[in-house]
Amino acid sequence: MENSFQTSFIPKKPINATYVTKTPMNGLLVLAVIVFVIVIVAGVGLYFYKNYLIDQKNVLSESLNKISSTFEPETIKELEMFGNRTSTAKQVLQNHIVLSPMFEMLGALTIPQIQYTDFEHEMANGEFYVKISGLARDYKTIASQADVFSSEKGKYFRNLVFSNLEKDKSNYLNFDLEFIVDPVVLSYENNLSLKQQSSTFVPPVDSTNNLTN
Fold first, then answer.
1. Binning pLDDT at 50, 70 and 90, where does residue 133 land?
2. Which alpha helices (H) appear in 70-181, and where do they start and end?
3. Which of 70, 141, 148, 182 has its CB 3.0 to 4.6 Å from that of 136, i.e. a possible disulfide?
4. Is the dihedral of CA 100, 103, 109, 112 positive or negative?
5. How many CB atoms lie within 10 A of CB 183?
6. Which of 74, 92, 94 minimizes the C-alpha distance to 84?
7. pTM for this structure?
């Protein structure tokens, strides 16, 4: 009887894994170390830069003190008083309001068929408000005047509103006009330049529709 041998290549016990799976922990650790080093270097740089600025401030203060010591106390006091007066005068000049350029501009913008009968103004909420009453020949005249105010030359008069349009016994059209004046018009410093601009404007004239006709 022949001997039979059974051979099997299937392992009887599980083979332990001999390979180690690589994880991204090593990469994250390296990145963390790099960020940490950058933070440390930046902190050290800021520290030295701060000290540099402090040193520069001290040097400038010492230089200023040396320069100041060369002047007499009375001279320094006079210079301070002059500086304060100059600053005050400049502030007064900037806040000074003049109405003459506004009236000149309003006259240049008003067509001949419009006649003003009353004028009021007030300063409220930082804005200069104007209210005018007047007479016009007809509704067409009001429309023409509104077109002039809406042109480039009338850009310094804002939020214009015509209201209370009503015919009187002479068949003229009564109206009220309200608008806000741009501060640049009322500034004393800009008076000369605005005066030159308004003087170059020639309003349209319609001789066939004059208020006096």
1. very high
2. 73-95, 100-109, 139-149
3. 141
4. negative
5. 13
6. 92
7. 0.47
Spatial distance between the Cα atoms of 173 and 163, rounded to a whole number of angstroms: 11
Q: Using an 8 Å Cβ cutoff, are 164 and 174 in contact?
A: yes
Q: For residue 2, give the amino acid letter.
A: E
Query: Which residue is it, tokens 């000049």?
Result: 93
Q: Residue 39 in contact with residue 32, Cβ under 8 Å? A: no
Which residue, 107, 132, 104, is CA-closest to 117? 132
Q: Report pLDDT for 41.
A: 87
Q: How far is CA 5 from the centre of its chain?
A: 101
Cβ atoms of residues 211 and 201 within 8 Å: no
The C-alpha atoms of residue 57 and residue 64 are separated, in whole angstroms, by 10
How far is the C-alpha of 135 from the C-alpha of 57, rounded, in Å? 69
The residue type found at 49 is: Y
Separation CA 159–CA 165 (nearest Å): 18
pLDDT digits (tens, 9 = 90+) for 74-102: 766 776 776 666 665 555 545 557 788 88
CA distance 52 to 60: 12
